[in-house]
């Protein structure tokens, strides 16, 4: 019985096959890439902190952060997004309202 449970849980964050080389390789800080229908892939020189400022050991140089909300190992992706049918574009389909206002030279809170 326990074997069935442990087989259904992933202890390693799920990385897309095309997540690229660990670390990003550019030496210019971190990059965060929202994968279509999947996680946020973080590469490069980054620190992962909880909201209290405590370091979270990422365990690897390239990580996948859950953005579907269904992972059993948040903040990391465990691949559940595939089974849950999570759908999201890689890039925004429209500009954020605040970003649009800033481009127009207006303050978002004005
Ligand atoms: S994005 Fe992969 S489990 Fe949420």
TrEMBL record:
Under InterPro entries, the record lists: FeS-contain_CDGSH-typ, MitoNEET_CISD
| Stretches the record annotates as Disordered | 1-38, 78-110
State the source organism's domain of life: Bacteria
Comp. bias regions, Low complexity? 87-99
GO CC list: cytoplasm
**MF term (GO), any:** metal ion binding
What are the alphabetically sorted keywords of the record?
2Fe-2S, Iron, Iron-sulfur, Metal-binding
Recorded source organism is Blastococcus tunisiensis
- What positions does the domain Iron-binding zinc finger CDGSH type occupy? 52-87
Query: What Pfam families is this protein classified in?
Result: zf-CDGSH (PF09360)
Q: What is this protein called?
A: Zn-finger domain of CDGSH type-containing protein
């Amino acid at each position: 019985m326990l074997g069935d449970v442990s087989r259904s849980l992933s202890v390693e964050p799920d990385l897309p096959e095309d997540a690229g080389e660990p670390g990003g390789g550019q030496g210019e800080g971190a990059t965060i890439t929202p994968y279509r229908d999947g996680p946020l892939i973080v590469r490069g020189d980054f620190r992962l902190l909880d909201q209290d400022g405590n370091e979270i050991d990422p365990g690897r140089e390239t990580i996948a952060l859950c953005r579907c909300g269904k992972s059993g190992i948040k903040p990391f992706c465990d691949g559940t997004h595939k089974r849950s049918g999570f759908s999201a574009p890689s890039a925004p389909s429209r500009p954020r309202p605040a970003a649009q206002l800033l481009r127009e030279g207006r303050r978002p809170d004005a």
